[in-house]
Fold these 4 entries.
Entry 1:
Amino acid sequence: MKFRSLLAAAAIAAAAFGASAQDTYLHIYTTDTVTVKEPNQYGGYTEKQLGLFTSIPMNQVDSVRFLKQKNEFSRMSTRYNDSDGKSVRNLTFLNKVTKLTFGANPVEFHFTIPSDPTLEEVKSKVDYLDADLKINGFGVYDDFAGTAKIRGRGNSTWNWAKKAYRIKLPEKTKLCGFHKAKNYVLLANYIDLSLMRNAVAALITQLVEMPYPLHAKPVNVYLNNNYKGSYMLMEKVGINNGSVNIPAAQEAESIMFEIDTNFDEDLRVATPKFHLPLMHKDPDAPADPTEAKAWFENWTNDFNQMENAVAEGKNIGDYIDYQTLAKFLVVYNLTANQEINHPKSIYLYKTRGEKYQFGPCWDFDWAFGYSPTYRTASSTISNEEGQKLIEDAKKQFIAQYGSMNNALYRYIWYNGVPLYYMGNDDFMSYDQEGNWVVWPWGSTGYAPTYNGYLLGTGKNVGTGTAGNGGEFFMSIVMNNPEFMAAYKEAWQTFYSKIDTFWAAFDAYATELEPSAERNHTVWPYIYTTASDNDLEAYNDKTYRGAIEILRQWLKRRIEFIKDPAKNYGLYDPASTYKRGTLSTK
């Protein structure tokens, strides 16, 4: 570390933030766990361990001294006042200090559970807990104090150690500059070392000018004064909730569908042609079950007309708004989000008399080249033992769902873990570190490469309740000049703003950094974005290392998909697929 350059950067930053209305903090970054000396009541000093990141309010900092160690200014002593303004403390950083920054602290969400003030984790993703919520905006955003409800959320992500949350407020409220809404989500980004893959996808939805783009804001979350980590505040997908804000008068004549192989909503159906797992998302269905069933059937019949046109290669433009679908696919294409082929987390909506529009975009954990860590249970059990486990699991699935056919892409709690049925006697579960355990005998890792085509077929072709997402989207776009014209326009809209994209990318990474560094004092650097072979040199398992991997992967992805001769990376131009000929069975 160069002493002069660090001081100069600190001085410039301090001057820049001095005139700001925001609360300014001194952020201290180190290469190792920091040992600090604090005065104790006996007149001596007590050593304690801090994490890799420390943050001190600037209005409490009295002085900063840099100390030489082996002819290098790598130690630092900070004298500051406690918040009471009386106690004076000295922190001596004995390990290498790599960087100082001055800036606002990330927004803080403090949840207190009056009924259980010792609770350390939300236990359910079904039942809400009543909470008192205080938000510290640090002068950047408005503070908030009021009541809220909080519960867990997510499908596979709910089984990982760091939980995601859903918030419900008593009335529509504007938080962190978002549109007023009652419902928000706090994404954990547990498998994303960069903590910003979903934020990058949200940025793309804005630049490509989707009708209802996403927004993201890094925040620190506390539950009963326990620090839970860095989270990402985002809108909850839905109608008239800060997400899809169609006119209120049209809401009763509108529908939002979710297509997802979790297939876990009360109103759901496997569509007749592509076996898509179609579910009701919004607005609220009629309260009477018989009326709700008839209402949903009416809307699914409408969807089936569109699906039939797709399957038969007819003029799909009579049913689907190509402009919004094109923007939707630009987002998925840039991120190489393969969830579209499963399909999972796919949303579309319609108002009577209008066309289907795709969006909002959602769920970009498994994208940008991410590849999970796989292991197989067969390494610890014999074939005979494995077969017994399978037969036992199948009995439990049949007891819960009636048949293995109905159990496809669904799960049971088996020996304390969620066990998913993938078809053909293949099962999958998660361990607490987020690794996929595939059994009985084998597994294959899959990473969406930067030079791979977005749309494929046969990903979930099956005879079960859901599948054929790849066929559905491929049948819409292939050999479709009208759609490709809309896609070209949407791509050019994004690419004309490429400088804005990279500037916003860097700005978000910088804003997130203090929160990310603190997050990794609680959640270790276990996960990183997987890279393709020529990115393996970027194996720095730190926050900034993960950001660089993400940046390099995106640059290569952009270069690959900007070529019209490659159908902009949507599907392989060498394929022999023809509209209306793909399998729907």
Entry 2:
Amino acid sequence: MKRTAPWISIGIVAAIVGLLTVFMALLYNWQQAASVAEKEQLQRRVEADAKAFADQFNREIQGTFFNFQVDPVRVENGDASEIAERFDYWKKNSAYADLIKEMIAFTGDHEPRRFDETTQSFVSITADETVERLRKQLASEPRTGPIMGGGYTLAVPLHAAEEKLQKIVIRRKVEATEIPMDLPKPNGHIVVFLNESVIREKMLPDLAAKHFPNGDFNVGVTDRGGQTIYGTMPIGETNDAKEPLFDLTPDQLIWIANRQAMPRTVTEGDSHMVLDQRIESRTITQGDAAKVEAGQTFTVQMKETGTNRRTTVFNGDPRADSPWQLGVQHSAGSIDAFIQNELNRNLAIGFGIYLLLLGGIISIVYSSLRAKAFAQRQIDFVSSVSHEFRTPLAVIYSAGENLADGVARDGDQVSKYGNLIKGEGKKLSSMVEQILEFAGARSGNRKYNLADGDVSAAVEKALIDSEQLLKVGGFEVESDLSKSLPSTSIDRDAIETAVRNLIQNAVKYSNGSRWLRVSTMNGNGSIKIVVEDGGIGILPADRKKIFEPFYRAKDVVDAQIHGNGLGLSLVKEIVEAHRGKVSVESKKGNGSRFVIDLPQS
């Protein structure tokens, strides 16, 4: 099987990472553009909803204001029939029939009279402080606007009849400059007192629920002094949309016509009810005076049955003079903050996916490299084990052949060949046992028989089992096995195997120095087993890898030191099964010191 060149694999991985990075950059740009579009759309929507909120509120107030512009002569004569007729009609058509709390007529030199809904007539009232204050305000120059009392009182002007057209004229302030106009003086007023609780507890909550139903936006209404009328949100520069309330401009009057706040048709006897209305003209003019660009007058023609016409006039800039203001703000603090949060969240998700994919690629590459290295180690292991098996098998075969051919006849020679076969067979058995131990430990099938035992006794048994090996190698052995160690839960056979493997490694990797020291001691909550040698030592780069299965350092392989790379891996498996740990201290050329820490039970 032909292997793929490493640079091809690296190129493929680099290309995938590059494509992912380009995709992330495109995603970032797309998210930025989408956020701008979403912000504009959301801004337009909130402005439209705020205007719809204000328009609907203003139409209710306008319906109340314009509905009661009646004949001042009849009111002055105490005739309340037209007011009663208008009031009944208004109650049938208004969404809030209890919006009007009281109406008082101020005409000529007459004392103020209250309209009694029950008797549908005017009744005399005692002029208290409130009534006197209203009388002074209505008689003041310049005359007061139509909205009084902080927004809960409407002053409806009453004008004498004309022959042709009913006009509604408004004078606006522009850049603090008043444009003077000839405004006719009203013949009286109908002062309409609005029900505060209806506005606060019904109208405003209903409109908020209708136009901002999802809770995405906070709605607040404040008066001129900044006092909260509805909601808890202050009106300020951070509002996403603002609209004036109590706007009585003729721009809004056409909505009254569409909504039929006044009747579009009349029945017999309704000689003073409005039949139809529409805005006829909107001009920028000031009579014979020089043209003033900012000044605007509005003329509204309203047709009635019969020949009587009345003119209603009020002045002031509603947007500057509106007693209340509606403010709308996104629940996130502002639309900008909401869009930024959404952008950050989407980018975080995209970046998280990017990192996840990148991490997945890196993990796959890393796993592939580890699998490749592990496979190579397995191949090296098979090769090493085959070589390890071949030498003793060759010796056994040769000795057996000599015995079979009668080469060795006397007792000494037979005994010599017998011991040779026995020793080589023991090597084979040890290697097979080591492989089986490793396989059992890795598969999880190895069962450890843990019981209270003496660690020093187990180490001493491992030294005795290794005595022949140490004697043949000519090792000087030092032992310091503590007799006062506390008993702990161990599998004695497994501990003996671990210590034997460390001793065998010391013999195998000796460097001319035939010295070995084995000791046990009691250390800070643990029992320590220490195996020290004066061998070839371990390079720093190899120290973390020597406990991995099949791993053999490059310098060991180059020196053709036989082994299968399982000894230290098996030691680690055994020690970790006892809830302990194994570590190594070594310097190249100066030997190694292996320490097994077993917890006290």
Entry 3:
Amino acid sequence: MSPTNIPNTNEFAITVATVNGSGSQTANQAILRAIFRMGIPVNGKNLFPSNIQGEPTWFTIRVSARGYSARPAEAPILIAFNPRTAEADLAALPPGGICLYPEDGPWRPRRDDVTGYPLPVKELVAASSFEPRLREYAANMVYVGALAALIGIEPERLHGALLHHFRGKAQPAGLNFGVVQAAYEQFVAAYPQALAAPRFRLAPLRATEGKILIDGNTAAALGAIFGGVSFLAWYPITPATSLADALGAYLPRLRTGPDGHPAYAIVQAEDEIAALGMAVGAGWAGARAMTCTSGPGLSLMTEFAGLAYFAEIPCVVWDVQRVGPSTGLPTRTAQGDLRAAAFLGHGDARHVVLLPGNVAECFEFGWRAFDLAERLQTLVFVLSDLDLGMNLWTSEPLVYPDAPMDRGKVLSAADLERLGNFVRFADPDGDGIGARTLPGNPHPLAATLSRGTGHNERNVYSERPEDWKANMDRLSRKYETARRLVPQPVVEDDPEATVGLIGYGSTEAVIREARDMLRAQGLPTSFLRLRAVPLGEAARRFVAGHRRCIVVELNRDGQMRDLLRVHCPEHAARLLSVAHSDGLPLTAEFVAEAVRKLV
């Protein structure tokens, strides 16, 4: 049977159930990259425990020629390599599914409506060239080879993927590929019937030509580098650590001075409070400074966030969100920090928040955040999440910044000589943004002190009510200016639609797939993808133009829905919520069903 005549060609999902710390990530990413190299759109979602080793972990690979990348509602192929979870994993396998499992292990599938294929794991590993102490890691390569035979992954693609993983080192790649090849050949010989009438198959395409596989944290780090970052202060926290790691890996290659010395600084602080304090100090000194964290770290940064807002110091904070409150679920994904980031700090603080919806925007907002921070002289938050940040996604190539760096209203010595005067918080342009100077400016007028206490427009300490009000009113004007400068929403209007879907961040992929399902069911919808706070006129027009607007988000309380109701209170009754948080990315099936119930 030709692969193109098989009903499930290039449209299915695989769940790999293993043990954390067993080397399964190498195996799973080899599968993912091999399928990508066959020209087939694919992405993977890793569900891992918040410990180092020994607990269950799952990896879901979704193959979709149509380009869908949301978490699948079900996966018809199960690789059951963890006996502790095997019964529950098998129960989730749909009728007609396939299960690969070790024949020499303690577990056997007991369901008449699925097909099981036992694999001689110990035998194949014992016959390999691996040292005995490493054979535990080699075991996962057995399911790689068997799966390759079952669904038609080209072995040479797997070899290339392993070379990529081991950074071109032929010896470890060859050792692993030897097990893959042996398992491939064993499966072909043992189960000819599976290959004679396959139910799930890959057929090479050219849909990934010119595209890349990348995770959001790496894309964000590269974007920050191309945006001129020169200072990072950070404290380790899941799932933001890999963003700092990527900066540490790429900055030595991309940011050295003419003398060959580093033109950047990376400091691992003693805690998140110190990390933001260092970054704010570096931003005051003129560096393009940033930190990266997740929800618990964001909470600790509150006081310095208020200082940066009130003293008007540019700085960037990447918040790769996880499930809270408190420690919550450190290795699960959510969109629960929106409200916190938008208003972090006591008193009347309002922050600029960017909301990348894909890895290409993680790169773009990585550099654009610095332009906005310096143009607005304020703290800018970028809210990603674990799903977007730590998983591999198929993406268009990253686009180099389209403009020179925007440093905002920075006065040079020549500017000060020409002006003859410097009033730090004057607002001659009416945009709420005063001019600033940087340390090192030699002009006598350049010196200025940034403070978190009350001050007048000349930055002189003041407790006069009129000075306080004037300052806060000007900060409000700056926030209005930000509405025009932040990335504007993406609007996809359907002329037949009376229902609008609104989303942001990583919900983009699931909403797109849900829209296709709803249209097939006779319910066309429009789509507004928000990309920043503060919200603007585009959001108000979209809400006004639809009978019902349903905000889809990955938190319990509908935080963006609430911000939209505040933004356009005259249309508050039109705004409904599909808000759900259980630690997992949403599925299109769940969203489509929830929308239908609301309309």
Entry 4:
Amino acid sequence: MGNGVQGSRAAIDAADAVSSPLRSGPHATLRGRLILGAIIGLLAAAVVFAIVSSDLIRSQTARASRASFDQQAERVAALISTKTEEQAIAGNCQNYTPADLQAFVGPGAHLFIDSPPLCPGGTHPQENLLAADGVKIDPSALASQGYQHVDFRAPGATTPTVATAAPVRVAGQSVGAIILTKPASAVSTSWSEVVPNLLLAAVIGFVPALALTLLITSRLTRPLREMELAVDRVAGGDLTASVPPAGTEELDHVARAFNSMVGRLRERDDRARAFLMNVTHDLRTPLTAIRGHAAALRDGIVPPGQVDRSLGAIESEAKRLEGMVSDLLDLARIDADQFRIAPTTVNPGEILTEARAAQMAVADHHRVEFEQQISPLTSLVTDPKRFRQIIDNLLENAIRWTPAGGTVTLEAHTPTSGGISVTVADTGPGVPTAQREAIFAAFHAQASPDGRTGAGLGLAICRQLARALGGEVHVEEATHGGAAFVVQLPATAPPHARTPLRNGGSATGASPLS
């Protein structure tokens, strides 16, 4: 069996090598693909985050800078308003040059005074950019919101100028306006200022995200790795391998299915081993008898009057071996879907009578009473050889499991739906309800009351043959205790039918088999 497993493993490996080329590298494993996919996803998310965030930050920074610039213009206008009002009250008018005004706004900004001049009657009126650049001030806008955006582009300039006008008030009345200007670049944020910081933030966030991805991927793929190792063990012949629950519904379902499969393989392996042991024992017994009689005949130690008896024993044991080999071949053909039937018109009553007559001697030997209750039957179109084989197996099984003094009953009738229904009942120990499907599994047997353990083939072959003939066989409780095997066949068997199920179909378990 070990050589068979190794041979199967070698065949599987060879088939895998032909069907799929060997792969290497991180992309060859599920874990590697998950990690690569997660890294690509994280990088893409980081790039998108940097692009979107930089644009949002630049916009928000520009709005904040412009609001700060507007507030600066309002503060300068308020300061100049205060100075103008103080000088007007004191009658001490001081002239301000543009350079003097720059001190109010700091470097990079320019201040312009709209008429009237800052100091009415002064000798140095202030520069007025309105006439030169066509900037239009709306007094109503100044009154309503306290400032007005008057951005402009100077002739010949390559970039626009940001300008905010704010009112100059004396005694609560607007007497003019100041205009504060700066290059547009001074109140905005460039890409070069935003992107590096955002990329740094993205990298800082990418590192823990990658570590978390590796951890999650490792946890997700660990059950698959355990399953892979278990599969390798099973392929190597270790049928004790199992996969623990993984904690997720899908993987737990796969683990349960795998463990169930291995359990069935282990059960099948145990049955096959028990079958080999039983067959070896059953083969050795007739072979020993044949060899003993043949040796006695060759050596001339058998009295002349007992030569026929020895030859008869040799013939009987040879027929017994032939029957076992035939059963094995039938089961092998059924399992390989190579089993066919040859339907013909038959008289089922004659076949049942012949089968009973053939088993009478066996029943007498076991001191079992053999009864027959066969109603008038209609003819069938079926395979007579296979029909007889089913009945013989059921009768042999019933006689073997009926204790001395018990009764085996063969009943048959034609159902209203046509065909035939045959019941083989005994007064043996019966079959527990939980075992009534399991007993039709191949390669499993139990010792009968006479101490004999068969090869575990009889009932499995009966069910397969019945299904091949278009019918079915099942077991139920007999009227007077024991087991009652019921065979139901149609009036016409399918032509050239193949058995639809293998290895006893869905039946599993253990029970006495012929």
